[in-house]
Amino acid sequence: MSQFIVGLTGGIGSGKTTVANMFADLGIDIVDADIIAREVVEPNSAGLAKISAHFGPNILNKDSSLNRAKLRDIVFKNENEKNWLNQLLHPLIRAQMINQCNLAQSKYCILAVPLLLENKLQSLVNRVLVTDCNTNTQISRASHRDKNSAAQIKQIMAAQLDRETRITYADDIINTELILTQIRAICENLHQNYLKLAN
Questions:
Q1: What is the spatial distance between Cα 41 and Cα 21, in angstroms, rounded to a whole number?
Q2: Where does a domain end: 63, 80, 105?
Q3: Which residues are annotated as a binding site for ATP?
């Protein structure tokens, strides 16, 4: 990958999408791992065929799409099934991320990966940009957005790196407690810095 890549990560509800959109507004290509993760299990994909062969046809909705809630329920309760799924999907997602970064047209690109550090993908990027806010803000944002209970959000957070550890990996940090105009100004400063680094 000749492209200069900035890895954007942060805990659930920490403002990654807001920050990614600001970089997109500056003309930067965004490669989004969440979108790729959905694409590799779309109807008629090799990924979905393997999942339905393994878990049975009941894992599909009537329209042949993946029943995510059912799958999440199975893997949340069964560590072996979770490992099986990760071993199937992670290489597919990783290959697609690398491919899309290679195809990016902007001077540098942003690779947005919620679990960049947890999945030890730092080697794919030149810099790590972390979105950060306090834990209560994460819980209220994520439960409001995903219509989940605070307990469910805390469970997801427990499976992610804690805030202090995540920050130790960061080359750059954006505090998303700030107002949007301040966040945008930080993104613009970082953008100028990344353009210099990409050259």
A1: 25
A2: 105
A3: 13-18
